[in-house]
Structures are given as C-alpha cells and as structure tokens.
Specification:
This is RNA-directed DNA polymerase (Reverse transcriptase)-related family protein. InterPro entries: RVT-Znf. There is one protein chain. The chain is mostly helical. The protein has two domains: 56-216, no CATH class; 225-366, no CATH class. Helix content is 47%, strand content 3%. The strands form two sheets. A two-stranded antiparallel sheet has the order 1-4. Strands 2-3 form a two-stranded antiparallel ribbon. Helix 3 (55-72) packs across helix 9 and helix 14 (308-316) packs across helix 15 (323-343). The radius of gyration is 29 Å and the shape is elongated.
Length: 367
C-alpha cells in the first residue's frame, strides 16, 4: 500500500469486507443494513464521519513519502538508487521526471501534481529547482501535465534567469516576466535550494499531514465534533452520529426501505408511525424519563424537547457539562425500545432511571 498505487477493484473489495464487518452483514450481531454511506463513514470524526480510514487517500499519502525523499533528501540511499536507475546520474542535479520506468515509478509520476501543490521550492541558488515542474517563487507555478511538454523539461530556475531565451515566452509571457523580476535579485550563491511541505507547520513531510489535507480538502467541520470527547463509550458516540444524521432504523426508516414492521410506538403504546422525534422527544414515556433526569441534572437540559436535532446540538455543545447524561438518556431509551420489540421485556421509568444513573457514574470514572 505504501509502494504501489492500489487498483480501484482492490480497494473496492477491501471496503466491501470492512463495510460488511461494520454493519454485521452475514452475522447474528447486526442487521447487515448499511446505516451510513461508506464515503461518510470514511470521513474523519471532525467532519461528521466515523473516522474509518479512507484507503485511497491513505495510499496516496504513503506514496507521497517517496516523492518527498526523492526531492527533499537526494542524498538518502533510496533516492540515490532511484536517481541512478531512472532520473539522473548526479545527486546534486535536479530531479527530472522521466516517464520511462517501472510501474512503481509511473505510479509516483501520477501523483506529481498533488506533490507540486503540497510543496514549495525554496529557491536559493536556483540550481536544483526545475523551472517548469516546481512550485516556486511567490506562488508562481508553471506545472505541466503528462500530456503537455515544455520546451526544455530540464531547465532550472538558475538557467532560466541566466538565459531567458531558453524559455518559450509567448503563452506565459506576463507570468514569466513577473517571476523574473521577483527572483532575479533574490538568488543566493553558494546556498542550495530546498523544499518546504506546505501541509505541515514544520515544513516537513508527514503521512498524517498529507492524509489530513487530502481528506479535509473543501469540507466544513462537523457541528458535533466535540462529541468524541464526551465521557461515554464509543457505541453511544457512534449511535449519536447516526441519530444526528437521521440514520437509525425507526419505523419511518424501515418504511423507506420496504422492511415489514409492526406499526406503533413500543414505549407509549400509541398507534402511530414511530419517528426519531417522537421516540426521543414527544413520546409520553420519554418525556417522563427526561423530566426525572432533569431533576438530577437541572441545568443544560432543555425544558421542552422540540426535536432530535435540538437535543443533539445541545449534547454536542462542548461547554455543556451534562452532555454525557443527555447521550446516555437517549441510549437508554433506544435500548428500552429494542428490548420491548425484540425481547418482549419492559421496564418502568424508575428502573431505567436507576440503570441510567449507574451507567453515567461508571462512564465518568472509566472513560
């Protein structure tokens, strides 16, 4: 995974097995019904996902490490061997992107555009920085795809500034002249060029920073990211994420999936279509339990529960010291609902409250 770019079918097969394991397909421990789209499952927790690794993004992140070693550490043993076999026979020379080579080398070349965006060449003497293929100088980047070839692929910044005639000026005349004016007076003799990793404050490459940047690109942070720091077990946290996205299997969800069910609320015995809002907020049994819990935790629990989203936003508030009891109460209601449907066992509000308070105390000590 860190050496070759995984084919799409390999990732698909691995994800299929991971997905079946997560949702319990083919076992007696789960429904086997995927409750959340796999793309969302693989999002980081801060983005509303479950934090399961995105194999494609991790594969790319691991392979970017080799490009970093080639460019940033040309004197390393591995870089020396690759340069001798594929690129140039001089470690002090800039790396040229020869398209001939093994599958491994071609896989690296396919990630070159990502690497160019993620790095900035710190030009000193300009002798190791390729003019066309490096991101250099005040954001100026003359990057070419594999289908487009510059006039001189091996042209360095130093040679370009020393002899502008080697650059074909017409398509990029304005940008090139601007770059010349910015860089011509800034070259430092007897000082070697270096590479800075843009996705890390230290300027050094790390797989973690690469994966984080690739996954977070263009996405907004999940409103309930503080959920994962609440002192409750992971099972309750995952259930809370599913509930926030309205992905739990209440009767309205079963109806959409054409799954047969016995209509009616298992808690209050009303003959109506069960929804998440009714089950956790409007059901008379749930309201009574919330009132009893509010007696022990009078602050930060809404006096009127309008809908599940309101309750979850309240629970996700990192300043709410009682968010754990809110999530535990929701979990207790869900367990009681399932026990009544599947096991035909019922408990009263007092019994559930006693269990809930005991569990909350254990969570506070253990988590």
């Amino acid at each position: 995974m860190s050496v070759f770019k995984l084919p799409a079918w390999v990732i698909k097969e691995i994800d299929k097995r991971r997905r079946n394991f997560l949702w319990g397909k083919g076992t007696d421990r789960g429904t086997g019904i995927p409750l959340l789209a796999w793309d969302r499952v693989c999002l980081p927790k801060d983005l509303g996902g479950l934090g399961v690794m995105n194999l494609r993004m991790m594969n790319i992140s691991l392979m970017l490490k080799w490009l970093w070693l080639l460019v940033a550490k040309p004197s390393s043993q591995w870089s020396t061997i690759v340069r001798l076999l594929i690129s140039s026979r001089n470690n002090t020379a800039p790396l040229t992107w020869n398209t001939l080579g093994s599958f491994f080398w071609k896989d690296l070349l396919s990630l070159r555009h990502i690497f160019t965006i993620a790095t900035t060449a710190k030009v000193e003497d300009g002798k190791k920085t390729l003019f066309w293929y490096a991101n250099w100088g005040a954001g100026h980047q003359f990057f070419f795809s594999n289908s487009t070839k510059p006039l001189n692929p091996k042209l360095t910044v130093y040679k370009a500034l020393s002899n502008p005639a080697e650059v074909s000026p017409r398509p990029w005349q304005f940008h090139i002249h601007l770059a010349f004016s910015l860089l011509h007076s800034s070259l430092i003799a007897n000082s070697s060029d270096s590479v800075v990793w843009n996705w890390n404050s230290t300027g050094l490459f790390s797989v973690k920073s690469a994966y984080h940047s690739l996954v977070f690109a263009g996405k907004t942070r999940f409103a309930g990211h503080a959920l994962w720091k609440v002192k409750v077990p992971p099972t309750i946290k995952i259930f809370s994420v599913l509930l926030f996205h309205n992905r739990i299997l209440t009767q309205d969800a079963l109806l959409k999936r054409n799954i047969p069910f016995e209509e009616g609320c298992a808690l209050c015995k009303q003959n109506l279509l069960e929804t998440a809002d009714h089950l956790f907020c409007h059901c008379s049994f749930s309201v009574e339990l919330w009132n009893r819990v509010r007696g022990f935790f009078p602050t930060q629990i809404p006096s009127i529960l309008q809908d599940v989203q309101t309750v979850m936003v309240q629970a996700f508030d990192r300043h709410n010291s009682n968010c754990a009891i809110i999530l535990t109460t929701i979990w207790a209601l869900w367990l009681e609902r399932n026990n009544r449907i599947f096991k035909r066992e019922e408990r009263g509000v007092n019994s559930i409250l006693h269990w809930l308070l005991m569990q909350h105390s254990l969570f506070e000590k253990a988590c």
